[in-house]
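Lab notebook, bench 4. The sequencing result for the construct came back, and we need a structural model before the next group meeting so we can plan mutations. Quick request posted to the team channel:

Model the 3D structure of this chain.
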Amino acid sequence: PDIAADPRGFLLRCAVPGKLVSALLGHGGEGIKEVQEFTDTRIEIPGTSHEPTRIMHIEGQLLNVCAAYMLMMVRYINVEEGTQGLPPPALEGP
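Done. Here's the predicted structure in token form:
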């Protein structure tokens, strides 16, 4: 079976430091919206700003979820390094 086309979709969860969530979301949530729109996924990071660790949920088709996870990890690394957001070529279309 073609697991990548499974209509049920997939959910990936991973822990992120609570102190980085605001930067991952981006100004007004624009960072996360950009990744969601580019990958056709739904991304949520529930919880409050006081929690030391938050769980990020990424839901959608398997390959899209994997792509969204990688893009969010690029954001995570950039936030840690102080270069917030995605590098410009990351979301360029074909």
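The CA atoms of residues 16 and 54 lie 5 Å apart.
Will bring this to the meeting.
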